[in-house]
Amino acid sequence: MTTSQGSRVLDYPSVYQLRQLIQSSQTNVVFAISTSRSTPSPYGDLKEELKLGAMLQITSLEADASNLVSVIRSSYDNITQEIRLTPDKELPQVTFAYSDAENCRLSGNGAVCSDITLNSSVSLVVTVNMTSCLPNITTVNLRSAAFGAVTLELVPLCQCDCSLEQEPNASQCSGAGNLTCGVCHCNEGRSGSQCECEDQTTNTCKTEEVTEECSGRKRGECDCGQCACYVQDQLLRTRNMTKLYFGEQCQCDHLTSCGGINDQGQLCSGRGTCDCPSGKCVCSATGPISGRLYTGDLCECNPDACFNTDYPNRTCAFTGSLGSLGDAECGCNTCLCDFNGNNAVPAGDGTCSPGPPPCSRREQCARCAKNLQSSSTDCNQLRRDEGCDPILLTGDASLPDTRNLECTFQADGCTHTFYVSLSHQTVYVEPGEDCGGQENEINNLIWIIPVSVIGALLFLGLLALLVILFIFWALPFSGHRCTSNQTADCLSGLENPVAAPPQIVKEEPFGETVQISPQEIRLNLRTGEPQTFTLSVKPARNYPLDMYFLMDLSGSQAPDLDSLKDLSNSITDELEQISSQFTLGFGSFVDKIAYPFASTLRNGSDYLTRHLGNMVTECANGRASCGPTYVYRHHLPLTNDSGQLREVLENVTIRGNLDAPEATLEALLQSVVCLDEVGWRNGSLRIVMILTDAGFKTALDGRVAALVTRNDGECHLELEEGFYDYSRGPEQDFPSIYQVREKLIENDIITIFAVQEDVVRERTVTDDVVYRELAEEIGSSRAFVQTIAEDSADIVSVIRRAYESVTRDIVVDSVSGLTIGIAPVLNCTLTSDGRGCANVAIEDLVSFNVTVTMDQCLKDMQTRLLPLPGFGNVELTLVPICECNCTSQMTANHMSCNGTGSLVCGICECSGVSVFGDQCDCGRQLQRCPDDCFNRGTCNNCSEECTSCFTQQDTIGQIVGSFGARCQCDNSTGAGACPVGRDIDQVCSGRGECVCDGEKCDCDCKCGTAPLSGDRYLEDDCGCDPDNCYNEQYPGRECAYSRDKGGNEGRDGECDCNRCDCPRDDAVPYNRTCINTDELCDKFESCAKCWPNNCTSGDCSPKGLDELTSDGVLVSCTFEREGCIVDFQVVLSGDFNTMGSVFVGEERDCQESDILGQLVWIIPVSIIGGIILLGVLLLVVAKCILMAVERKEYRKFLDDMHHGDFVPVETGFNIIICLDWASIYALATDATASAFATLLDSYDVYIIPFSSQHSNPLYVTPQTEYKNPILEKSDEAEEDY
């Protein structure tokens, strides 16, 4: 600032400035602190902040400075015992490394040589490394505070000297070009790496069929108009191949052409040549015996396999009894002796000899396909010896040719069909079988389905599918006939649109403003069908950068503002090193001018004001006052003039507000949506850096100040006095995080939250969200968090770190309605979330495949942007394929529909109600099936038989629904169904088979046998288990009596369905036996004697008799203890009463207990408890009476106000009302507002609102429609008031 006399008064230096000055001047500083100080010394904290090591020392000085000489000596010794080398300037392109040498022990960061003694020689090695090229020769001094400096002259070597030397028409350039730095620059009319090629009139490197030179860069290079194909990869090199690609345009390769190479690295089995470009083998080798050429697609068929020297000039001659048949055909390496149905087999010597018929010879091979082979057949042995490898004709598989012999075999009462190829002996097996009638189908289904692993959900889905199919079959079809992209067994003419591959619309080369290729792509999409294209990204070194600084100017930010002013030139220097095409701008924010966010008092006045912009308040950091607060102010549009930033910062002042969270998100939203005012450029990296030390407010926080209007997310900046101010702050609520996120994505802007370490971890007053969580909500590719020093002194390094964090990873953002997938191709390491490539360096080329899937069909063609934050966008033109073109084409009385229906999209629509079927080949009768399957089953289209009845599996595993030949039976309501177990919630208790009679419409359980006793389970639900009455200690006996060891006295109990019934009075059921009660008491006596000592006996833990429960079999027992009788009860519980609980009573027949002694403590406790209870009741009654009285008086007050019954005592009567903010808001919006308005018109009313946060009342203006006597009073009236 400047005083009235014109002298300049400077502020104190910052810690950062002090550290820079000490290091640059290499001055050692010693703080000698007097011991007479009564307050703690701050110099220890200062030393930690300066981080100067031995260059700064703190020592104690006596009150009378008597030890000053010793302090000087000790400080000098400390300084000279350490050598610290420090460069006098920062060079980002250069790093210094230090290593030990002679008498030097490095410490700290490696630049400190400690424990130095006087008169000793010290050496250390300094390594200088230039990471990027310096612009020119640079001088740097390595200084040591106590020992001087070393001056280094750094001469960068960034280009070769040979560029100045040129050899014209050099021999290395075929005498037709100049040689510069080992590279030929050819004369006009010559080309090639050595200028060896003359301009060609014809170029064979590409043709009309091969549009790319040499079939693409990966296959070869065009040299002098001819392709030089690339040699093999490592795999082919191990197979002794000479080239991977071949052909005139390198269009053929040794991996796919002509079937690819074999294990010996040969094409065409080494018996021919591969014709390029047809890709077919031309066989040239001949059999040594027959002299005929090898045949087959890969020249793999030996003609000698069909030739026998005993039968010259013949092929596969029949011998023996078949000699009159002549010759058979020659297959691949075998004779086709079975052709035309001859019962002959290849003899293995080029002839055909009599043999079994083909069907019987290959039957076991066909059985192996269905695991129906005989016990003596080994399928693996058949596969090895006879080449048995049957093919199951499932799905769309069909017979490859017509030379097949149809055969059958019988298994399990069913007929199975298979085919034997007469061309190559391959066996084809039909998947189904013919098992005769359908009478037992439902009965088989009932016991097969419960053992299925699919369970209840599958049957519910199957039932729903059957209902849907029935509806579609029964009702006429009027919708679209489009199908999915899956193949189906349909009539010819079915339309299945196929999406065309992606088309590249725009592909510009990489440059300073282009980082993505291609830039525009056209995609033809079907729902659920992915489309994949390759995307390449090359981060540019000098990409345009727009950096907008958005600073919190609340009172606590004063040190940060000072640092920003001091470092403004360093900031622009750092941005210029990042990109010479940079622009920077500046904006600031504080909070809304509304209580309780900011004060609404005008400085020095008790009057309410209508001009809220003139409000001031006391600063939070102790300053006398701050400037008027505001929500957001845009000071400097984006510009490349670094001087303007310094000028703007000099005129910026700190503002004041009341609470900690600020209007951060509202200011961020305005800086993002006001594109023209801020000056965002197209084709640049847009970054907003927010500098703050407090939390943020978000949507609904404005309701505290009665701001209920939703933030509209639009730009509302108005130009005033050279800067833009946000005009809707007093009217709208704060924006939501979702609004901010959407606008950042829409305008392709990235935000950096530069906050202090404590703010990163704290939680704001109004939200649970911290800045790292806020960044996650906005998106990891759109928002980043960087920690900054308390006074923002490290802002320059924060800018560098922020830029590196933005450009380090290439991330593909999501697009609405599309599913995006990423797969690496070149130099791409997937990020942790799989959405892009991590750790990408500048100018590194990265490629990855992007897979786009349309979730739901779009209505029409649309253009979407695929964002890559920090690198640009890819424009996607989406062309949806949602309709078939065949719906408008109908052929009436089509032959495929037997002339009785129209063919629409490959599906028959039958004419009339009397014709039905997939091909309109069935006649519809009055009832298509007997009783129409009672609407409980599926009727065959033509056979008029019920093919399957509707069933389902209920929650207990029982198959319920319809059964019977005509689906006439139904057990879904419980009638005729197999019973569920009484104890086990399963059909037939899970111990038997449910067998249904389709004629009687009834189902019964067929019970199995128990494993221990071998007896059958009993009752109609198989719920009675005979093993529950069987104990292995008593073999062959049910419910054995424990004292009858042999079972000869007939005193055993009876089994009553899962439990023993013991008729004897001295026996109870226990562990599947009838145990004698005396034995039971003896068994548990040791457990009872542990009571009340809290001991345990085995697994038994006794309890008091007062805890006795009656659940179980109760047995009374006694034992003696010290002359007293003790009663205890044994309660048997658990499965088969295997668990015994013991409850022990008190001793009896002993001396009487002292009841009076017990009453000594019971009576006082009862009296005290009664008094406390009575007091609580009295308080409750008094509170209720008081609330009733207050409620009555309040209602009377409201009625008086409503009816206007207030009578003034005298003219000019003044009323003073003190209300809190909530009451004022309720009064202004409640039904009593009209009565209150009458009161204001009749009297001088003073409203004094108050807040719990402030001791003094705050004056506010009432609603505008009310009379406001406060603003109309004169000074005299105010004094009277």
From TrEMBL:
- Work out whether the entry's keyword set contains Glycoprotein: yes
Q: Does the keyword Glycoprotein apply?
A: yes
The Integrin beta subunit VWA domain extends over: 471-884
Record keywords? Cell adhesion, Disulfide bond, EGF-like domain, Glycoprotein, Integrin, Membrane, Repeat, Transmembrane, Transmembrane helix
**GO CC terms of this entry:** cell surface; focal adhesion; integrin complex
Where does it live in the cell? Cell membrane; Membrane
Q: What is its main location?
A: membrane
Q: Which GO terms describe its molecular function?
A: integrin binding
Protein name in UniProt = Integrin beta
Which domain of life does this protein belong to?
Eukaryota
* Record family assignment: Belongs to the integrin beta chain family.
- Membrane-spanning residues: 445-475, 1159-1186
Listed PANTHER family:
INTEGRIN BETA SUBUNIT (PTHR10082), INTEGRIN BETA-PS (PTHR10082:SF60)
SMART domains assigned to the protein according to its UniProt record, in alphabetical order? INB
State the species of origin. Answer: Geodia barretti
